[in-house]
Amino acid sequence: MEFLLIIIVALLLIIAVVVVFNFLGGRKARRAETDALKQRAYGPKDPFSTADDDAVRGDPRQLKPGDLVELRGETFAVRGTLRLSQSGFEWTENFLDTGTGRKAWLSVEDDPDLEVVLWQELTGVTLTPGPDALELDGRRYHSDEAGSAEFSSTGTTGLNQRGSMRYHDYEAGDERLSFEDFGSGWESARGEVLARSEYRIYPTDPAPGT
Known about the structure:
The protein is an alpha+beta fold. It contains two helices and eleven strands; from the N terminus they run ααβββββββββββ. The chain has helices spanning about 1-40, 50-55; strands at about 70, 75-85, 90-95, 105-110, 115-120, 135, 140-155, 160-170, 175-180, 185-195, 200.
């Protein structure tokens, strides 16, 4: 009888130990999950990240032929996209068309902050790049950067599928002046940096659930 009682007591102790370990293990797991949630909610974040805006208004880095872009209330179709690269840095230039005669280019670069610029080609301009500063229509533009890059073309851009180009960019506040040569001489364009609220993107193949 005493032997049986000892066995019962031993079994009860084993059960108690298992229960305690399970409880502690569960509490530890719950604590780890809570810590992970806190890290996601309160962990270090880039205060200038555009992720939230991109989720709502579309990611301009992903623009491609066939997408629609609304710029300041005017709708454009992306007819072609140039993807350019220089020493590992990449950016895009997108040829836009309303279908009613209005055409423009939209450049997108992320270095390190996202910059989206609406460009209009200039005609009859006799300026050539090189000086530290250039004046156009009473505005003085200062040299920003110059170099050469490789490009690939998709859709309608008027260029070969692949090639090289050179460029020289100037800036004056939120205005830009750019010169590009794709093999037939310098072409110039004037650009305006767009605020995130000034454009919205409608991709041709949106992600499921959007």
